[in-house]
């Protein structure tokens, strides 16, 4: 109990310091910035490019040049138009994506999109089966070693599939497009039973995973999406560099494009790792 209370207190202090550093960017509270702990920022987002992996039925990312060069007036000027799926590359699934009447991406609060994270590594299990689904037992085994998942945490699931990005065949299990591609998807996800257990037994803000979907590739009913999003819990998908995130102690900032009424959007997600985190 004391261990969990200490961990929660540390998480709150770190979150306060994250707020202070944001205020410092605005010129507010600069004196307090010196108290921000030493640590490292980790980028958990893939860049958007012509190599970006998207769902087989989604449009590919496209960047069109408006201007790039020296103008008649003698200065350099570049500008581009881009077209992207809400759910391509590193992105967020807002609750409305699978739950009617729940929050759209612009309605998610900054409080829900920032906070402490725990990481559950199932890469050993997924090495045995591409279709592995994270089980309740995986969560309970994690808690035996690390303590109860603190309230207000984001749960990050490391399957090890990030090593395959941006090779669609290895990452998705197929490089086919359209409905045929969807039928041939093979990658790990979160079992619906485990998603149900999380929402019924733990108070979490979000779930993230280093695959293309919180449900495994062969899912037909997307039960984990439905279970989480009916409770207004968003999902982060195609999360990068989870091998660099510790099992506890990281603070997450996950800010999507703020699309009014959107079911999701490209996500810039980063992690702060305090120097004292082991």
UniProtKB/TrEMBL annotation:
PANTHER family (alphabetical): CYCLASE-LIKE PROTEIN 2
Protein name: Cyclase family protein
InterPro entries: KFase/CYL (IPR007325), KFase_sf (IPR037175)
Transmembrane segment boundaries: none
Pfam families for this protein: Cyclase
A single MF term (Gene Ontology): arylformamidase activity
Source organism superkingdom: Bacteria
């Amino acid at each position: 109990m004391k261990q969990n209370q200490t961990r929660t207190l540390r998480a709150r202090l770190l979150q306060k310091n994250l707020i202070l550093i944001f205020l410092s960017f605005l010129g507010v509270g600069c004196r307090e910035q010196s108290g921000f702990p030493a640590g490292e920022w980790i980028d958990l987002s893939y860049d958007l490019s012509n190599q970006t992996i998207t769902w087989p039925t989604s449009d590919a990312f496209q960047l069109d040049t408006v201007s790039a060069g020296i103008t008649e007036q003698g200065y350099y000027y570049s500008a581009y138009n881009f077209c992207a799926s809400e759910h391509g590359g590193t992105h967020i699934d807002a609750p409305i994506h699978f739950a009617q009447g729940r929050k759209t991406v612009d309605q998610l609060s900054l409080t829900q999109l920032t906070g402490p994270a725990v990481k559950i590594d199932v890469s050993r299990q997924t090495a045995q089966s591409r279709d592995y689904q994270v089980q309740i037992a995986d969560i309970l085994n994690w808690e035996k070693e690390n303590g109860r998942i603190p309230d207000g945490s984001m749960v990050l699931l490391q399957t090890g599939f990030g090593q395959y990005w941006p090779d669609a065949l290895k990452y998705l299990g197929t490089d086919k497009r359209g409905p045929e591609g969807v039928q041939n998807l093979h990658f790990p996800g979160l079992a619906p039973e485990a998603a149900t257990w999380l929402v019924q037994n733990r108070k979490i803000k979000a779930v993230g995973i280093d695959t293309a979907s919180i449900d495994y590739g062969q899912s037909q009913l997307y039960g984990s999406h439905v279970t989480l999003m009916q409770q207004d819990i968003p999902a982060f998908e195609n999360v990068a560099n989870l091998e660099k995130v510790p099992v506890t102690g990281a603070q997450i900032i996950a800010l999507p494009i703020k699309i009014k009424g959107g079911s999701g959007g490209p996500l810039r997600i980063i992690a702060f790792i305090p120097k004292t985190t082991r």
